[in-house]
């Protein structure tokens, strides 16, 4: 599938989601908003996993984006939702860019434990800071959008539409990155970092870039989640939050961007209904769900259609289409 065709499909999907949001019940609208915003943070984990990294600290950037979005209103008087989301993403990206050169020196479990340590340090700071509400956090004032007040049920849809739009743009960005030279080097680093070094590319620089992209996506997800919930607290940076992101990333796999948001939505559905009907054992239901996926589809949800596109017949059809279009196969 060509990049242009895939981007057109993504644009059509965003348009469909915006239309469905007009008729969706309020509970489903809210659940989808959370699933989409969490999906951005999960997409960051997938970007890092695809490049050979392993993180248990995505909650750090999720929390940075959420708190910066909250403080932009309470301390700087910025009420516009778009500006606050962008500030949250940029702040998380800046933090990620500062620590990326240090973390990129490590691999495997050492890299993962360092990210977890940074996340838990942030959790400790937020929990002890009375100025930031301590362990209880604090509430956010309802945002505006381009100067217009958001009131009633329309506010829920506007936040949903904003989340879908940001998800569409971020997904397109990641999709293009995956097919760029830097994205392909990142995939090669995952397979054989030493060979990439012999070919003249830097595996450290590639991992640092992936980590920075993951931090931006985590910040955007945290910012949108904070606006949807109207509240922030230190649990955004806690290890269980990062664990949920890793859980969904494993469920999605790294072959498809769309699979990430399907996995995030599936996780929210399973968690919501399990928590409703099995309030004391809903974590067990999630664990069984993940085990089934790992056993029967170890490549994740994305491998369902990624494997199909790699079949010999599909490959030959793609080559014929490329020749017809004047592109070498």
Approximate strand percentage? under 5%
- Structurally, how many domains make up the residues? 1
Oligomeric organization of the protein chains: single chain
Helical coverage, percent range: over 70%
Gap from first CA to last CA: 13 Å
Low-confidence stretches: 314-329
Mean pLDDT across the residues is 84
By DSSP, the count of extended strands is: 4
* Sheet/helix structural class: mainly alpha
Strand order in the largest sheet: 1-4
Largest sheet: 2 strands, antiparallel
Q: Can you count the helices?
A: 14
Using the CA coordinates, give the radius of gyration: 20 Å
The secondary-structure element order is HHHHHEEEHHHHEHHHHH
Tell me the overall shape: globular
Give a structural overview.
With 329 residues, this protein is mostly helical. The chain has one domain (3-254). Helices cover 75% and strands 2% of the residues. It is built from 14 helices and four strands. The protein has helices spanning 3-21, 26-50, 58-74, 81-103, 108-128, 152-178, 181-191, 193-198, 203-229, 239-252, 257-277, 282-296, 303-309, 312-324, and strands spanning 138-139, 144-145, 148-149, 231-232. The strands form two sheets. It has a two-stranded antiparallel ribbon with strand order 1-4. Strands 2-3 form a two-stranded antiparallel ribbon. Helix 2 (26-50) packs parallel to helix 6. Mean pLDDT is 84; it is low at 314-329.
